[in-house]
């Protein structure tokens, strides 16, 4: 099986990390995010990990500033890609929200290994698909993804079965 990079995206709370965790039960996985260095900077400035709309907007705005300043988020995920390529892991999940940033990363990563994009959408009764107040979260659908996974499972057990089948039969076959 060849190494595969999966740029994963979706609105907050749609199940991206859960999907990554389920995949890790089947494949050797690395899970990184372009927001990681921004969160580290925000922590120094007093942010304590909240995921409320105000914090999400602050992180999105700070990421936009560092993207314009020195492209820190992309540099970070490209360095994580290089580590992944030297490892024994088979799947690298890269969380990137903004379409332009996805395009930039995919252009570079696809030169080195198989790279695909995946949008996760949640369609359950307990999930509200309302605006979160920042472009990074609110515009995740404004990109042409290779794959879309619909998280409509009523339980974690059903989600696990669906994710495993989807990755085995769709994502990893390509």
Give a structural overview.
- The protein starts with a strand and ends with a helix.
- It has one domain (4-171): 3-Layer(aba) Sandwich (Rossmann fold), CATH 3.40.50.300.
- The relative contact order is 0.24.
- With 174 residues, it is α/β, with parallel strands linked by helices.
- Helix 4 runs parallel beside helix 5.
- The radius of gyration is 16 Å and the shape is globular.
- It contains seven helices and five strands; from the N terminus they run βαβαααβαβαβα.
- The protein has helices at residues 16-23, 36-44, 53-70, 72-86, 99-109, 135-138, 156-171; strands at 4-9, 29-33, 91-95, 114-122, 147-151.
- A five-stranded parallel sheet has the order 2-3-1-4-5, sandwiched between helices.
Task: Write the topology of this structure.
Layout (H helix, E strand, L loop, with lengths): L3 E6 L6 H8 L5 E5 L2 H9 L8 H18 L1 H15 L4 E5 L3 H11 L4 E9 L12 H4 L8 E5 L4 H16 L3
Helix pairs in contact: 4-5
**Number of distinct beta strands:** 5
N-to-C span: 11 Å
Biggest sheet record: 5 strands, parallel
Query: What is Rg?
Result: 16 Å
CATH architecture name: 3-Layer(aba) Sandwich
The stretches of 5 or more residues where confidence is low (pLDDT under 50) are none
- H/I helix tally: 7
Portion in strands: 15-25%
What is the CATH top level name? Alpha Beta
Helical content (DSSP H or I, runs of 4+):
40-55%
